[in-house]
Amino acid sequence: MVEASVKTPFYRKKSILILSALLLAVAILGTTTQSWLHTAVDQGAVKVGDIAVQGSKAATAVTAFAVVAIAASLAASISGRVIRIIAGCVILLAALGIDIAIIAVLVNPQAAASGPVGAQIGLTGIPLNASVTVMVWVALAAGVLLLISALAILFLGSRWAGSRKYDKYQKPASSASAAGEPLDDIDSWDRLSRGEDPTSGTIEDSSEHQSTQEKS
Fold first, then answer.
1. Which of 22, 59, 132, 167 shows a CA-CA span of 20 to 30 A to 10?
2. Domain around 204
3. Which residues contact 62 (CB under 8 A, 6 or more apart)?
4. For the segment 132-149, what is each residue's pLDDT rounded down to a tens digit?
């Protein structure tokens, strides 16, 4: 009786988690191109209407951390276990930085808008009214999900099989020829990289098969 193979839940798969982290980081980067704050200046003779402040100007750290998270997600997708854990730590730190920077904007939007607005109107230190847009909350939600994805990559990453081409820290698995399976291009390349003859197993198997036929 053949036992049913246990399928890995989709939320624990390498492709799902790393792709989620990558897409979330891209989404956060995309929100920084949109308006995060609407401000109005009304101080004596200085009266300025609605001024929109982009996320990249209201919280410059968010843009930088999002780029770092994208790079780390790409690295985690092709690396072995050790590098993947390091990339997961980088994504985690980037997510923390993103969330802290966004919360700072939510707590004190006036302070976040004062610099960009002052540079635009040529005056600094003027009291202004600032309100946040929905894009700030979208960025915060994506930042929290990115943090969760980073934690999942850290805890589950050690159980994933690494890329055979890039993972130099894993013990070499049994070759396909040892299991009686034909070698594919990647297996052949891996054996050549280790200085082995990728055709040796095939030749030996063919010789044994011919010997068996002659004896019979």
1. 167
2. 185-215
3. 28, 32, 55, 56, 97, 98, 101, 102, 139
4. 999 999 999 999 999 999
Q: Among 79, 62, 75, 57, which residue's Cα sits nearest to residue 21?
A: 75
64 and 98 housed in the same domain: yes
pTM equals 0.67
- Distances in Å between the Cα of 148 and the Cα atoms of 18, 63, 77, 98 are 11, 19, 17, 13
What is the C-alpha to C-alpha distance for residues 145 and 25, in angstroms, rounded to an integer? 10
Question: Residues, the chain, total?
Answer: 216
Q: Specify the number of domains making up the chain.
A: 2
Same-domain pairing of 118 and 202: no
Same domain? For 30 and 80 the reply is: yes
Task: Give the DSSP letter string of 33-82.
Answer: TSEEEEEEEEETTEEEEEEEEEHHHH-HHHHHHHHHHHHHHHHHHHS-HH
